[in-house]
Amino acid sequence: MTILVGAGTAVLALLLQAHGAKAEFETDVEAATTGCIEPHRDAIESQSVGDAEWKQIITCVFANTAAQMDAQLPKKIDPITTLVSVSSNGATFNYTYVIDVATADFRQENIDSLEAAARQNACTDPSMTQTMELGGAYFYRWVDRTGTQITTLRIEGC
Fold it and tell me: What pTM was computed for the model?
């Protein structure tokens, strides 16, 4: 999702995506963003939003969006992957996926593929790339069917 604030002014990009296949969510964009943007309205309209202010806005929107999305989980992404949790930690949006495999059966090339798909998704999604340019980040965590961590990935830029 993208929020355009003021004609020709700053654009704050937000995400509603998973890596690879996308999960669909019912979110209230206005509820997730309005209270976050209002305190910075003058700076946004005058195009004078600093890095610290962008991080505050992103932190607020991520928290609100994560709460809305997490209430709709778990969501099946594909036959073996389920998005089980989303959260935020400051200006970082976190995803946790369960992959219905045993860690012992997961090879390095599978990990490399997961990470490449997540990075490609983040770096080809205009909303996500713009959010990263403004100071946001995305953290992915994949666990096996027993909850054992397979790998993690943090994407801060492309």
Answer: 0.83
- Give the domain 2-155 fold: GMP Synthetase; Chain A, domain 3 (3.30.300)
DSSP state of 135: T
Burial 111-131 (b: 16+ CB within 10 A, else e): eeebbeebbebbeebebbbbb
Name which of 154, 153, 147 is nearest 103 in CA terms: 147
Q: Where are the domains of the chain?
A: 2-155
**Other Cβ atoms closer than 10 A to 64:** 21
Do 39 and 5 form a contact (C-beta atoms < 8 A)?
no
Note the pLDDT tens digit of each residue in 73-90: 999 999 999 999 999 999
